[in-house]
């Protein structure tokens, strides 16, 4: 089964993947923007939304790795023309993943205050964290289920249906945010921060239902749990475990950043919440080409087409860089208006503007890391991805963060550490790909 590697085929996957990929950060950005402008306690609410959002993102990224494992295996079997052999694998993998997520969910419900105290949340911010999390956490298994189905579609070289689901979820979330946060006089009371949590939960439930319905109607993949277990389930588990460790290392960096920003004061965690949401938004925007690399890379590897794989890597990096430079121009052109979308607090905005340029200048390096990250997942190189993240976090981000703190860099230390973190990730993946696949290519 041949795969054409050109602008059209890459963007048929990349553009829908970009749109679906930014759905999750849009949910967080919407909450951040609307919560940051509520009439009372906006600063405390913004800080709580940022802290809870970071923790939930950690849980989703740590336990949502089955998506990449399923996508890699399905795309490789599709390329080899043996898709029927893994028809029942996704249901088995998703079942065990959701079961694990329920265990994690239940275990956190009883220690909510202790969890957010570790983020240096206290007083009113801690109370808001508890109330916000108590609602949003129930959307956690729904998001994992939706992500896993997105992984199935991605493995089948289909990013269109995830895009449709993501658009519906994002639009619904924005509408519900306005209705439930601010309320409608005489009809719906203003729920403020809790309203944002309910908006996210309802949107996540609708997205999960739509994902399941489209999978059943549009594919031959079965969601019926069948025994004996598929021979590839062991591989899914080990790939997922490597990504599990990787995601923990990734979230060590994100959590330490939140913790240090919170320790600096309310205006710093407010500014960090805005910056990290924009950073994630840009990441998922670029991630469309990573998704194309994931889907097509696995299929090309399964077919043994190394020339096509090399060509794919060069093209998705080029296209990703073009997008990153467009985002950079947009960031500098709308430097101040972007901040006002998220907060009306002068102190928060001044703090945010002080580091926003670091976020913008880091975009090309982020592109290199994200694009190769997606490609390596499609190739099943989960062990190497794990080792790169462990190295980047514990030999790059953490030393840089605390050295900067020792030197008195304050808030800047956090974002300089992010730049070093991404620098290590990007160049380590580029080096490995060149070393492993250049010898297999006839015309590199």
Automatic annotation (TrEMBL):
<keyword id="KW-0813">Transport</keyword>
<dbReference type="GO" id="GO:0006811">
    <property type="term" value="P:monoatomic ion transport"/>
</dbReference>
<keyword id="KW-0812">Transmembrane</keyword>
<feature type="transmembrane region" description="Helical">
    <location>
        <begin position="93"/>
        <end position="112"/>
    </location>
</feature>
<keyword id="KW-0472">Membrane</keyword>
<feature type="transmembrane region" description="Helical">
    <location>
        <begin position="410"/>
        <end position="431"/>
    </location>
</feature>
<feature type="transmembrane region" description="Helical">
    <location>
        <begin position="384"/>
        <end position="404"/>
    </location>
</feature>
<dbReference type="InterPro" id="IPR044644">
    <property type="entry name" value="DinF-like"/>
</dbReference>
<feature type="transmembrane region" description="Helical">
    <location>
        <begin position="316"/>
        <end position="335"/>
    </location>
</feature>
<dbReference type="InterPro" id="IPR048279">
    <property type="entry name" value="MdtK-like"/>
</dbReference>
<keyword id="KW-1003">Cell membrane</keyword>
<keyword id="KW-1133">Transmembrane helix</keyword>
<dbReference type="Pfam" id="PF01554">
    <property type="entry name" value="MatE"/>
</dbReference>
<feature type="transmembrane region" description="Helical">
    <location>
        <begin position="355"/>
        <end position="372"/>
    </location>
</feature>
<dbReference type="GO" id="GO:0015297">
    <property type="term" value="F:antiporter activity"/>
</dbReference>
<protein>
    <recommendedName>
        <fullName>Multidrug-efflux transporter</fullName>
    </recommendedName>
</protein>
<dbReference type="GO" id="GO:0042910">
    <property type="term" value="F:xenobiotic transmembrane transporter activity"/>
</dbReference>
<dbReference type="InterPro" id="IPR050222">
    <property type="entry name" value="MATE_MdtK"/>
</dbReference>
<feature type="transmembrane region" description="Helical">
    <location>
        <begin position="160"/>
        <end position="184"/>
    </location>
</feature>
<feature type="transmembrane region" description="Helical">
    <location>
        <begin position="46"/>
        <end position="64"/>
    </location>
</feature>
<feature type="transmembrane region" description="Helical">
    <location>
        <begin position="196"/>
        <end position="215"/>
    </location>
</feature>
<keyword id="KW-0406">Ion transport</keyword>
<comment type="similarity">
    <text>Belongs to the multi antimicrobial extrusion (MATE) (TC 2.A.66.1) family.</text>
</comment>
<feature type="transmembrane region" description="Helical">
    <location>
        <begin position="236"/>
        <end position="257"/>
    </location>
</feature>
<dbReference type="InterPro" id="IPR002528">
    <property type="entry name" value="MATE_fam"/>
</dbReference>
<keyword id="KW-0050">Antiport</keyword>
<feature type="transmembrane region" description="Helical">
    <location>
        <begin position="132"/>
        <end position="153"/>
    </location>
</feature>
<feature type="transmembrane region" description="Helical">
    <location>
        <begin position="269"/>
        <end position="290"/>
    </location>
</feature>
<dbReference type="GO" id="GO:0005886">
    <property type="term" value="C:plasma membrane"/>
</dbReference>
């Amino acid at each position: 089964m041949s795969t054409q590697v050109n602008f059209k085929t890459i963007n048929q996957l990349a553009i829908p993947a970009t749109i679906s990929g930014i759905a999750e950060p849009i949910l967080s950005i919407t909450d951040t923007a609307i919560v940051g402008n509520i009439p009372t306690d906006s600063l405390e609410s913004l800080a709580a939304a940022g802290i809870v959002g970071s923790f939930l993102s950690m849980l989703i990224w740590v336990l949502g790795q089955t998506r990449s494992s399923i996508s890699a295996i399905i795309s490789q079997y599709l390329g080899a023309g043996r898709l029927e052999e893994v028809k029942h694998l996704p249901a088995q993998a998703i079942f065990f993943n959701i079961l694990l997520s329920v265990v994690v969910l239940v275990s956190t419900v009883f220690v909510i205050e202790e969890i957010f105290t570790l983020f240096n949340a206290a007083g009113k911010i801690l109370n808001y964290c508890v109330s916000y999390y108590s609602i949003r956490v129930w959307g956690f298994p729904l998001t994992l289920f939706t992500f896993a189905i997105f992984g199935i579609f991605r493995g089948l070289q289909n990013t269109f249906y995830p895009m449709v689901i993501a658009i519906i979820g994002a639009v619904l979330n924005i509408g519900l945010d306005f209705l439930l946060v601010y309320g409608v006089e005489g009809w719906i009371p203003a729920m403020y921060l809790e309203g944002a949590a309910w908006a996210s939960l309802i949107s996540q439930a609708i997205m999960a239902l739509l994902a399941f319905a489209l999978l059943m109607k549009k594919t031959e993949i079965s969601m019926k749990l069948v025994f004996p277990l598929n021979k590839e389930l062991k591989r899914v588990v080990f790939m997922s475990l490597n990504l599990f460790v990787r995601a923990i290392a990734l979230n060590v960096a994100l959590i330490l950043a939140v913790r240090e920003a919170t320790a600096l004061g309310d205006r710093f965690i407010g500014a960090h919440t805005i910056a990290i949401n924009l950073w994630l938004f840009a990441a998922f925007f670029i991630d469309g080409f990573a998704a194309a690399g994931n889907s097509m890379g696995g299929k090309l590897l399964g077919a043994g087409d190394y020339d096509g794989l090399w060509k794919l890597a060069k093209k998705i990096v080029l296209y990703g860089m073009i997008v990153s430079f467009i985002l950079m121009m947009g960031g500098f052109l709308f430097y101040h208006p972007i901040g006002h979308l998220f907060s009306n607090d002068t102190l928060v905005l001044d703090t945010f503007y002080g580091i926003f340029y670091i976020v913008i200048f880091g975009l090309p390096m982020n592109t290199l890391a994200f694009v190769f990250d997606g490609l390596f997942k499609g190739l099943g190189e989960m062990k190497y991805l794990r080792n790169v993240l462990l190295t980047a976090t514990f030999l790059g981000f953490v030393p840089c963060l605390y050295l900067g703190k020792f030197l008195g860099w304050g808030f800047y230390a956090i974002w300089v550490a992010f730049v070093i973190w991404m620098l290590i990730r990007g160049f380590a993946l580029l080096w490995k790909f060149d070393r492993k696949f250049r010898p297999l290519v006839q015309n590199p």
